[in-house]
Amino acid sequence: MHDRVLKVLEFTKVREQLLVHVASTLGQEKINNLVPSRDFAEVVRLQEETDEAATVIRIKGHVPLSGIHDIRPHIKRSVIGGVLSPHELVQIASIIHASRQMKRFIEEIAEERTEIPILLEQVAQIVPLTNLEQDIKQAIDESGEVLDGASELLRSLRIQLCANEARIREKLESMIRSSSAQKMLSDSLITIRNDRFVIPVKQEYRGHYGGIIHDQSASGQTLFIEPQVIVQLNNQLQDIRIKEQVEIERILTELSAKTAEHEGELQTIVQVMANLDFIFAKARYGKEIKGSKPSINHEGRIVLYKARHPLIPLNDVVANDIILGKDYTAIVITGPNTGGKTVTLKTLGLCTLMAQAGLQIPAQDGSELAVFDAVYADIGDEQSIEQSLSTFSSHMVNIVDILNRVDGNSLVLFDELGAGTDPQEGAALAISILDEVHRRGARVVATTHYPELKAYGYNREGVLNASVEFDVETLSPTYKLLLGVPGRSNAFEISKRLGLNESVIEAARSHVSEDTNQIDKMIASLEESKRQAETEMHEARELLKQAEKLHRDLQKQMMEFYEKKDVMLEKAREQAESLVDEAKKEADKVIRDLRKMRTEKHAEIKEHELIEAKRRLEEAAPEIKKTEKQNGKKTKTHTFMPGDEVKVLTFDQRGILVEKVSDNEWQVQIGILKMKVKEKDMEYLSTPKQAETRPMAIVKGRDSHVKMELDLRGERYEDALLKVEKYIDDALLANYPRVSIIHGKGTGALRQGVQEYLRNHRQVKNIRFGEASEGGTGVTVVEFK
Q: Which domain holds residue 686?
């Protein structure tokens, strides 16, 4: 991509925002060199690695990236035999430690069955240099000081240093505490000059202590003298310090040599940590701009849903749908200069560059972008946020350069095409340029305020007119892109709102041709029709969605009803057969008793004995429980109120009274269904626990029932899992055999998290993706045990 295009489309500003999210100079270096890729496979991989990093951040919330340093110069110096400083060795140990932490962090996430193959591939290259790290840390502390324990000799030398310093201080303390010292010393303190202990002596007493003068005060009145009595002790101290420095040099040389032995592993660690810092910076930036991973194609197809300009604050930016490359390959945005057209151009161009650089884009899930060999932009400086006016000549230089390079796999953005010259010639030139770019098969979006180009989209196949909406009431643009509707002049309406005399406006209208007036009226009608069509379309979609849900719920309820009906009938049949068998057994026993009585008493059976036998036979007959309907009309003993739990006799089902619709009719909620029922066909249930077995579960509450599906689209990951957990509990309480969870396709992270939770749920028997008619991979169907 040309550097000028990266600057004009403000990709360089995106890189500046990205720099905030890196943890090291290694990551900064990669971001400063970041440019969009033209290789399709590479772009797909870049998007995948960013998405994996976003998944890790979403799951863990943090990444251990501290302690990363650019140690490449240190490695190079150690290889050529140089001795590294303690601070350089500390940085080497630090990045080794950081790499080990990162390797363990990524591998632990992968063990939790999170799919992050690219990140695993990166950390697999890291060789944990634990021994080198420990050697450095045992010899040098974090502040860069060589520790006493680095070697036995160094420990011994430092003990000697402390002992010698103590003897010197003791002698000097006795000297400055003497009574004569009070008048000869400028101050009663011991100080150091040239690494030797001295005392401050007044100029006139310089010869009293003898020894060596090392320094004097600015006024010359005080001399810093090393008394003769401690010269020998100071010499011994200096000798020990020299030996200490030699031992430190030996330790650093040894550690530097060990570093050189691991040159290859250290270079790999630097490269991997730089890559990971860069990848996670991309993911954090995507989270900041509320970005998403776009689908990538090489067919020149662009589908952006609710795309936003990433450099405009979220509270101010207006999101737009931009579709190009399907039914049409060129868009001409016409209309007056209202400040929204250029932002649309830059949003499209910048999203394309960001996607090809592996960055997530500020658009909704499901957006799609193509990989172009080149993106060309001629955006007028007069429309730039920060720059000033450019000339027609400079525009033409850019356009000529574009026409010399453009091909079928290019995206071309023209802002105010043909501006800066005679309107008639400019419009003709704009049409000719658009024809040439369109003929070569490139994707092109152009803005213009020439009315002649309004007809361009109607006369050319594969070209679509568009405009940016303008609110005449507030005299300001709404920045809403209207695809399929050309722009129109609002000069008369604006002038009228600003108070221009009506007669002046009418006179102006008379100077405008009838064709122009008709075109403006046609455009106004198109805008109104489009807005009305969009509103009706949204309403129709919502109604269709509700109808489909209701249809599925009804089918499910009917299926469950018939299943439970068959079970209940079979159970009743078994109970009836059991009762009949018992009755037969009792009858047989009665008959046997009668025969026995007749034999024993020679048929002399008393009347009371026959009555008793008859009673036993009647008791043996199965009792048939009649329903309320069979028993005749029930006497009304309760005044029904909304919220009462009742039994609907005509359906033998329990329900809740919603509201009274007439004198003797109520609306009753039975499961998910609402129906009108007469009071005579209802029975008040004062003790719901004693009601008969329900064929379906009723969940009281605001929603009054559990739906057969849960829609998670647009939910954040953590909130979605909480909703899934509650919904599964509600569905189990409602005794549903199966439910559907709509998570959409998107990046796949939500789908993966939902399915992971369901696999580990002890009440879930099986999960599967929905059929094509059920929503495909955007829906997971759950079957319960």
A: 625-702
Check residues 339 and 701 and name the one with the higher pLDDT.
Answer: 339
Please say which residue of 684, 702, 720 terminates a domain: 702
Cα(446)–Cα(461) distance, rounded to whole angstroms? 16
* DSSP state, residue 756: H
C-alpha pair distances (Å), 736 with each of 263, 561, 776: 63, 12, 21
Give the position of tokens 């004009």.
8
Domain shared by 716 and 746, yes or no = yes
Q: Which of 88-92, 206-210, 591-595, 672-676 has the highest mean pLDDT?
A: 88-92
Q: Which tokens is 149 given?
A: 């324990």
Both structure tokens of 429? 């030139």
Q: How many CB atoms lie within 10 A of CB 735?
A: 14
Q: How many Cα atoms within 13 Å fall on the side-chain side of residue 438?
A: 21
pLDDT over threshold 80, residue 756: yes
Q: Is residue 531 part of a domain?
A: no
Measured in degrees and rounded to the nearest 5, phi and psi for residue 478 equal -95, -10
pLDDT of residue 686: 53
CB 303 within 8 A of CB 326: yes
The strand pairing partners of 655, in sequence order, are 646
30: CB partners within 8 A, 6+ apart: 274, 275, 277, 278
- Give the span between the Cα atoms of 266 and 93, in whole angstroms: 10
Query: HSE of 528 in the Cβ direction (CA atoms, 13 Å)?
Result: 6
Q: State which of 677, 702, 727 marks the end of a domain.
A: 702
CATH number at residue 761: 3.30.1370.110
User: Distance from CA of residue 212 to its chain's centroid?
Assistant: 73
pLDDT, tens only, 716-746: 877 888 888 888 888 888 788 888 888 887 7
User: How many domains are contained in the chain?
Assistant: 5
Q: What is the pLDDT of residues 256-270, one digit of tens each?
A: 999 999 999 999 999
The answer for 358, left when phi > 0, alpha when psi is -120 to 50, beta otherwise, is left
Q: Domain for residue 616, yes or no? A: no
pTM of the model: 0.62
The HSE-up count of residue 283 (CA atoms within 13 Å, CB side) is: 23
